[in-house]
Amino acid sequence: MKKQKQLLKGLTKQQLVRIFGVAVVSFVLLSLLYSVGLFSNVEVKLTDNLYGGKRPLDNIVIIEIDDRSIQEFGRWPFSRTYFAEIVEYLHQAKVVAIDVAFFEESTPVADQKMAEAFADAGNIIIPVEYTTFKKVDGKVVGDQMLTPPAEIRDSVMDVAYVNIITDPDGVTRALKLDLSDEYDNFAVKAYQYYWKKEFTRKDSRFLVNFVGAPGSFKRYSFADVANGNIQPSVFEDKIVLIGATSPDLHDDYFVPTSGGKAMPGVEIHANAIQTMINKDFLGKEPDWSVLLKIFLFSILVVGIFYYSPVWLAPILNLVALIIYFIFAIKIFEKGIIVNIVYIPAAIIVSYMGVVLYFYMSEKKERAKVLGAFEKYVSPKIIQQVMKDPKALNLGGEKRTITVFFSDIRGFTTLSEGLTPEQLVHLLNEYLSAMTQIIMKHDGVVDKYMGDAIMAFWNAPMDQKDHALLAARASFDMEKKLKELQAKWKKDGIPSFDIGIGLNSGPAVVGNMGSYDRFDYTAMGDTVNLGSRLEGLNKPYNSRILISESTKKLVQKEFMTRKIDKVAVKGKKEPVIIYELAGSFAEAEEWYQPLCDKFEEGVGHYFDKEWDKAIHCFKECLKIRKDRGDGKDDGPSVTFIERCEIFKKTPPPKDWDGVWVMKTK
Fold first, then answer.
1. 87 in the same domain as 13
2. Does residue 656 lie in a domain region?
3. Phi–psi pair at 64, nearest 5 degrees
4. CB 70 within 8 A of CB 246
5. 422: domain range?
6. Based on the domain organization, do 68 and 155 belong to the same domain?
7. What is the rounded CA–CA span in Å between residue 20 and residue 91?
8. In a domain, 663, yes or no
9. What is the rounded CA–CA span in Å between residue 409 and residue 180?
10. DSSP-assigned states of every residue in 550-573
11. Where does a domain end: 360, 392, 422?
12. 492 lies in some domain
């Protein structure tokens, strides 16, 4: 609650209007996309995943013309005498709907026998099929069609069109009920004769509520039925559909529940009939409902950000997203298809918009804070310029310097837990304190890079002890950080650590930029290595890492520990890195034994004596835990992990001990 109040107080009326403006922009954008049908294909594809999971009715069965039937009765089409025999066998069925094309005359004897069987049965429906279509008053209807011979057509209970229409993406999701004024849809006709009632729908597009994957309905092979292997009583009072399931007969279609496998047309009719019997009709929510929800969810996201703590807002938005998907699944079971693209999109787009707004606001505030630090340019630079105005000219000179880099560990995580105002205030206080220490030790603050600081010594003025000044400043910064951490803890602000890298060597120093806007800065390999050293603190779990050149310049006053031989990213030649451990005057008794044991472990490591090395590094951990500050020794932990890796996967025979860094 306290964080919420802080957030409320931190927003001005203008900022509040802008934030809710994000919701309005999100609504307008998504409404326009919805109105033009963008992502409609994505919408239907996602909705396809909601189909299925239903139990097929027992009173709908399929007699399939499968591969086994073709093998047994020979080349398709079968003799129509087989159909005559099948129909006689199905005399107990209530409706027999045959999804087979009898569009051409066969032998007179076979046609007559089948027609007589159809007439005697009195429960047969056969298909007609439209081959061309036309538009009438903007509606697509059938034009030319294929029909059975008159003798066969007149012998059956009824005739219906069997056309199955696919959507633009090649998936069949619905039956078209208005292709013809003369004939009904095949599945509709079977349903009407079964229930002895009319079937009417206001909409001409009848969405089929598919029960499951292809093969869900009970199937019997045409061959088994024709050979009398199935008891006739199995079909008593049922709707029997006869149709092709063999892939060679090419009567199959992809449906929402296909799962990569096409469904025979005869089974699509079965699914449609079950939808009608169970009244599992599907309907899409109206456009006004979609637009209203886009607006409400856009506002909801902004409201969550406005009233929730920063860390909780993304969680609540994710929960809202999950709840909506659960709602979509449950309401689908009730026969309503809700939009599952644009409402989640409203949540995501609004969320990203608000995050972007806060990011830009934070970036603007950070730039404002960092701009204020320009007054911390070293007075010695100003004095140098006053003595020699030519120093303002672009260019530079080559000098030996000690370069300093520092960076906050886990800054991204830290920033996510703070409001923009808190973050800017924290950076302001931290950078001010660290800058003052650098200035105290006669350093030049080169630049701020977000939470990172770059500084250097021995320019523009000569400083014989430049490396010592940088080392002293580094330890004073650590001491000051502990003081700040104690203060921040009282204010409820999480603490953080920093990593520092020092390197000494030649660099080009001077004013660089355009004629009217330039910075006094340093550049070169020495600077680049200093930056890499700072970054190496993370993999080694260390605090201050220095190069061998810096180590030589500070070793009379400061204790150091040899850490490793590494090839930093972007460089082929390896460098030896050291940990700066504090001055001899302030060093604790446990540190020298730790260094000795660590150096022994590193020696075993370079000799590929992994177990001996691990033993030494574990001794280092024990020394620091029992006799030191009670913390884990980061470099020792890192080397133990490496040794364990090398025990399983040894390095090549020509390995020279150099650890190659893949990242900066």
1. no
2. no
3. -100, 135
4. yes
5. 380-587
6. yes
7. 70
8. no
9. 73
10. HHHHHTTTEEEEEEEEEE-TT-SS
11. 360
12. yes
Domain boundary among 587, 617, 637: 587
Taking alpha carbons only, the member of 321, 337, 181 closest to residue 256 is 337
HSE-CB of 562 using CA atoms within 13 angstroms: 17
CA atoms within 13 A on the CB side of 508: 8
In a domain, 651, yes or no: no
Instruction: Show the CA angle centred on residue 594, arms to residues 592 and 595, nearest 5°.
Output: 65
Of 329, 206, 312, 317, residue with least CA distance to 268: 206
For residue 143 the two structure tokens come to: 């034009």
Quote the CA–CA distance of 511 and 385 in Å, as a whole number: 11
For 45, residues 6+ apart whose C-beta sits below 8 A from its C-beta are 169
Q: Phi/psi at 149 (nearest 5 deg)? A: -55, 150
Number of domains in the chain: 3
**Distance from first CA to last CA of the chain, Å, rounded?**
41
Q: What is the mean pLDDT for each group of 10 consecutive residues in the chain (664 residues)?
A: 41 70 86 86 91 94 95 89 93 95 86 94 94 86 90 94 93 92 93 90 88 96 94 95 94 93 96 95 92 91 81 89 93 93 90 84 59 48 52 69 94 82 90 92 89 91 93 95 91 87 94 65 93 94 95 95 88 90 84 92 94 96 88 93 94 89 70
Q: Do 448 and 555 lie in a common domain?
A: yes
Euclidean distance between CA atoms 46 and 258, whole angstroms: 14
H helices of 388-513, in order, are 411-416, 420-440, 466-490
Output the domain CATH number for residue 435.
Answer: 3.30.70.1230
Q: Which of 510, 513, 575, 580 is nearest to 543 (CA)?
A: 580
Cβ-proximal residues to 520 (8 Å cutoff; 6+ apart), any chain:
377, 381, 444, 446, 460, 509, 510, 511
**Residue 501 sits in the same domain as residue 397:** yes
Residue 77: cis peptide before it, omega within 30 degrees of 0: yes
Tokens (6 digits) for 467: 């490396």
Residue 135: its H or E element: strand 133-136
Which tokens is 336 given? 């309503």
Q: Looking at the structure, do residues 133 and 95 belong to the same domain, yes or no?
A: yes
Asked if residue 328 and residue 272 are part of one domain, the reply reads no
Verify that 212 and 260 share a domain, yes or no: yes
Beta strands 95-99; 139-142: pairing state: unpaired
- Closest by CA to 135, choosing from 179, 168, 176, is 179
Contact 113, 87 (CB under 8 A): no
- 29 and 100 housed in the same domain: no
